[in-house]
Every structure is written in C-alpha cells, then in structure tokens.
Amino acid sequence: MNQNTICAIATANGVGALGIIRLSGAEAVKIAQRCFKGANLEEAASHTVHYGYIYENRELRAGSQEQRTESKEPRVKSQEQSARNQEVSAEREIELIDEVMVAVFRAPKTFTTEDVVEISYHGSPHIARKILEVLVKNGARLAKAGEFTMRAFMNGRIDLAQAESIADLIASENETSRKVALNQLKGGITNEISVLRNDLLNFTSLIELELDFAEEDVEFADRTAMNSLLQNLRTKLRALIESFQYGNALKNGVEVAIIGKPNAGKSTLLNALLKEERAIVSEIAGTTRDTIEEVIHLKGTAFRFVDTAGLRETTDVIEKIGVTKAKEKIASAKVLLYLYDEQDSTTEEVIAFVKEFHREDLKIVLIHNKVDLTNDEIPNEFDRILTEELFPDYCDQILRISAKEKTGIEAVKNVLTDYVENLKDHESNVIITNQRHYDALEKSLQSVLQVEEAVRSGIHTELLAYELRNALEHLGEISGEFTNDEVLGNIFSKFCIGK
Ligand code: GDP
Questions:
Q1: Contact, 71 vs 148, CB < 8 A?
Q2: Residue 337: other Cβ atoms inside 10 A
Q3: Residue range 57-62: average pLDDT?
Q4: What is the SS3 assignment for 406?
Q5: Measured between alpha carbons, how far is residue 458 from residues 97, 222, 258, 451, 484 in Å?
Q6: Does residue 406 have its Cβ closer than 6 Å to ligand 1?
Q7: Comparing C-alpha atoms, which of 101, 127, 103 is closest to residue 23?
Q8: Ligand 1 pocket member 283 (CB < 6 A)
Q9: Known binder of ligand: residue 396?
Q10: Where in the chain is the domain with CATH 3.30.1360.120?
Q11: Cβ(139)–Cβ(34) below 8 Å
Q12: Could you give the residue range(s) of every CATH 3.40.50.300 domain in the chain?
C-alpha cells in the first residue's frame, strides 16, 4: 500500500449541493480507478473530467483479493462469477456510493506537482465519509492539515510566503485582505527581495573566494558596489518593515479600546457605533463588567472594539477582573478613545490618565461626551485646560459628542479611518501582513546593519563572510529557502485539513 497518496475533503464542512474530495500522489489515478465505474481514468488525458460512479467492491466472505465484479445495479451479488471461480473466490458485492464527476490532473502541472484527482460528489457529509473510506481501503491515506499545500511547497511549486498567502486567502473577510493575500500569492514579497538577495549572494561568493586567496591579500568584491547594494537593501527592508503596521491593520483589524469612568457613556457610544443594542447599557455605575469585543468594518478595515469596565478603583471582585482586562486591552490597543463626562470628572483625572497610558504606538483621542447636557462655548474651560496640558505631546484631538443623541459619531468614525490612512505612509510597493515575515525582515535588517558596520570597520574577511551568511539566511527565511521542521510544522498545522 502506498502511503504517499493522500486524500481529504476539499470543500467546507456540512451539507452542500456538491462536495469535492481531492487525492494527491503517485497512485492518485490508480486508486481512484479502483473505485470508479466509468471511463478508464488511467488512460485519461490530463485535465479531463469524467462521469461515473464511485463504488465499493465488498467481500462477503474471505477469499481472493483479485476478483472484482462490476455492475450497473446498486447492489448485485456476483454469485455467477463466484461460481465460475469457486476454487479461489469469495462472494463479492458491488455497492454504488454516489454518481460523481472525476477530474484527472497529471503531474507536474497540478497544485502539488503530483498526480491529482478531484471527485465531485453530491454534498452530503455521509457520502463524503463513505468515499473517503473506500479511497483509504484502496490505498490512499487521510491527509494531515495543510498537507496538500505543504507538498506544493516541498515540491517547489510555491514558496513559503505563497503557501501562507493561501491560508490568508481562505481566511480573508473583506476586499482589502483578499487583495493583499492575492498579491502575496502572486509572489509579491518574494519578488521584492529576491533580486537584492541574489546580488548579496554574489558578493558573498566573492568574499568567500577572497578567503581562499587569503595569503595573497586580494579583493574580488568591489567594496563600493557592495556598500551601495547594502544601502539599497537596508532602505528596502525598512520600507517593508514599515508597511507591516498598515498590513497588520488590514489583515487583523485595528484594536480600539473605549475607556472612561463608569457612566461616562462608553456602552452608549459603542452601541451608537454598532447601531444596535449589544452591550448592556445601565444607569448603575460599573455594570459593564466584563470585556465584550465587537467589530465594525469601515472602509475595508475591521475595527475591534472592546467595551470595558470603568477604570475607577473598586472593591467589587468581578469588576476588578474587568478593570485588569481593561488595562490589558489598552496594552494591545492601537487607538484609545477616552470618554469623559465633564460633570463627573476633573481635568486632573483626565490628564493623569492620559499621561499614564501614553505610548508611542497608541493614538489617544479624548471624547467629551454628553455635550447635550451643557450649552457652553467650544472649547469650554474644561477642554481648554486639557488642550493646554496635553497637546501635542500626548494627544491632538478632543471630540465633542453626545453618544445618547448620536451627534459627533461620524467624527469618531473618521478618527478611526484616518488612523489607518496615516499608516499607508510607507515607501514599499508590497505590504507585509504576516508576523513571521516581519520578524524575518527585522532580523535581516539587523544583520545587514552588522554587515555594513563590518565593511566600514574593515574586519577580517572571515567575519564579514559570516555576517553576510547570516543576512542571507534571514532573507531566505521568508521564502522558505532556509527553514526548519518546527517552523514548517507551525505554519502548516494552522491550515485546515484538505488544504
Ligand atoms: P458606561 O458605564 O461608560 O458604559 O456608560 P453608559 O453607556 O452605560 O451610560 C451611562 C448613562 O449615561 C446612561 O444612562 C446613558 O443613557 C447616559 N448617557 C450616555 N451618553 C449620554 C449622552 O451623550 N448624553 C446624556 N444626556 N446621557 C448619556
């Protein structure tokens, strides 16, 4: 039995009009033929589709494995034939499982580069299970998560970044994440750095050649040209790294924390943004106890809101959990909407809060809520003091809204979409969306900087060669040229079975 031909359901779980089971491996066509009634698949040309039945050829009692009887009828005991072969045979029965279309794709022009067969059946999970059982009985084995894509990578059909983009495409929820993933599948990031990587590889070879001629004190690698290449590489890597903030926002959304004292109107604002009553709004201070995550999509970006417990000091145990979570959420948030009700706050409180939570990578927006209750000039004394104390070092915006009357809500949305617009300000043609790529790029940049330093200080050629190898290795991690089983296992285990 050839354990290298794998099979799995390729379509989604559950009932559908049709489902697809895919086989890949050297024996794919042979195995499919063993349970297919219709055209001769083994003689079929590549990329052709064939009508027929998947059947099970069952043995009714022990006997020869060789005998196989086929019939157009769903259940026919092949007694006549068994009588003919009495000395070696057993009674067999043919059971048709489903009427199907079978597509044959021959190596190497397939997703995995191996022979691939796709069986389209009537989309019942029960039928799917039966077909898989028959395929396994006939020599295939069930695929592991991501195994088809892993084979495509192992067989050189796609690089690692492309393999990851397939998972991203499957997971894409909106136009932007779909486009970014598709661009990566087309080789975006790999193309972007492969030219520079190849140039660096050439220099590395020359430097290593110098090592062979160490006695003679010759320089094969033109140091000026090498410097300009390194500089070029550094600029490109920086641009790619900078694009990650934007890429990550597109792919995973932007985490937004709504923070403020109990009763400041956080739940009311969240509801106004969501336009539906999901969070519990209550007049009793501190009732929004746990964190609730809600998502809205604005201009193709997902904003993940976390409605949190109030930030007041409290002795209530349950609420304390909420307060801790609020602090955790601020730690991972990119935008913080700080809501205050002037009648229940002091400027000192707001200022102290903003100064405590201020971070380079956190945009803080002050939101003066309940303006429907007061009718004073804009900005009033309260906001003027905040502006004086906090602008521009800690924050640069105060929005005046009435969450209850739904005024100023558009301005809140604009703050969010502007935040993402500003992230677009990077020099790269390709947008990085993957944390693994980001980490590899960071490491590459560090080693390029080290190589530059090494060239500048004129260190020993041997050490320079070592630094160059490091840089090449990190650059190669993205496309998977340098990788290890742990990294691969980690990537492909996140795929679904059948992909
Ligand atoms: P949270 O504890 O910060 O989540 O506050 P809530 O959203 O539960 O609001 C507390 C109370 O303030 C509720 O009675 C709301 O109806 C009220 N409230 C919220 N926003 C406004 C507003 O803009 N104007 C007025 N007048 N009341 C508001």
A1: no
A2: 25
A3: 71
A4: coil
A5: 73, 13, 54, 10, 33
A6: no
A7: 103
A8: yes
A9: no
A10: 6-143
A11: yes
A12: 253-402
What are the structure tokens assigned to 492, written together? 């492909």
Residues 313-344: tens digit of each pLDDT = 444 554 555 566 667 778 889 999 999 999 99
Radius of gyration, CA atoms only, the chain: 32
Report the alpha-carbon distance of residue 370 to residue 355 in Å, rounded. 23
Q: Is the dihedral of CA 246, 248, 252, 258 positive or negative?
A: negative
> Which amino acid, 367?
I
CA-to-CA distance for 1 and 411, rounded, in angstroms? 66
CA distance linking residue 415 with residue 174, whole number of Å: 21
390 — pLDDT class (breaks 50, 70, 90): very high
pLDDT for position 252: 84
CATH of domain 6-143: 3.30.1360.120
Would you tell me how many other CB atoms lie within 10 Å of the CB of residue 51?
10
Does residue 310 line the site of ligand 1, with CB under 6 A?
Answer: yes
**253-402: in CATH 3.40.50.300:** yes
Please tell me the distance from the alpha carbon of residue 413 to that of residue 313, in angstroms, as a whole number. Answer: 30
Cα(392) to centroid of ligand 1, in Å? 29
- Report the separation in Å between the CA atom of 234 and the middle of ligand 1, taken as the mean of its atom positions: 51
Q: Which pair of tokens denotes residue 479?
A: 């496309």
Distance CA 499, CA 496 (A): 6
Encoded amino acid at 45, one letter: A
Three-class secondary structure of residue 94 per DSSP: strand
Mean pLDDT estimate for the chain: 84
Task: Say yes or no to pLDDT of 108 above 90.
Answer: yes
Task: Quote the percentage of the chain above a pLDDT of 90.
Answer: 45
Asked if residue 418 has pLDDT above 70, the reply is: yes
Taking the C-alpha atoms of residue 31 and residue 52, their distance in angstroms, rounded to an integer, is 15
The pTM of the full predicted model, rounded to 2 decimals, is: 0.70
Question: Alpha-carbon distance 407 to 170, whole Å?
Answer: 39
Checking if the pLDDT of 279 tops 60, the result is no
